[in-house]
Every structure is written in structure tokens, then in C-alpha cells.
Amino acid sequence: MPRAFTPKVITANALIEGDVIYLTANDDWTRDLARAEILTDEAHAELRLIEASQRHHEAVGVYLADVAKGDKGPEPTHFREDFRRTGPSNYAHGKQEERV
Known about the structure:
It comes from Tropicibacter oceani. The chain has 100 residues and is an alpha+beta fold.
């Protein structure tokens, strides 16, 4: 039996900066997971993924990531995605500085 489709967001890395980015409902890329479009329909998610994957001049490594609906927007359900959204872990800079 196929696994049920769970909510997802489209994520990638910004082509120039390498930052983790997420696709919004307005077709913009954002670095804020809370602003990402939550995709709950599998067919729609696949279509959005195809569209996002064609934007080679903006993003690389485009894929669907599992999320859960949270009070402030999507929340990652896998540790990898939680780690990606906080940025590099070698020292406090960028996204880590903003959380302090």
C-alpha cells in the first residue's frame, strides 16, 4: 500500500550565496521557512517541484521536504531539515546570530 502524502515545502540552495531557500505561494524564494508554501496535494506539489526545478538561474538542488503545520507556519519533521534551516554549525554567524 502506498504511503499517504504528507505536507511538504519546496526547498533548495540559492545559486550564488548557497543559503537554504524555500518557495513561497507567490513564486518567490525566501530564506524564512515560516513564509514557505505548504503543499498538501501530491499532484500540485509535483507540478510546483517541476516549475521550481526549471529555475536554474536562481536555485540548485530543488526538492520536496516534509513539514508539519505549526502555529507560525511550516515546521520541519526531519532533523536534516531542521539543521539546514539554521545554517552552518561551525560558529555563530548568519542565521545563528539572528537567533541570539
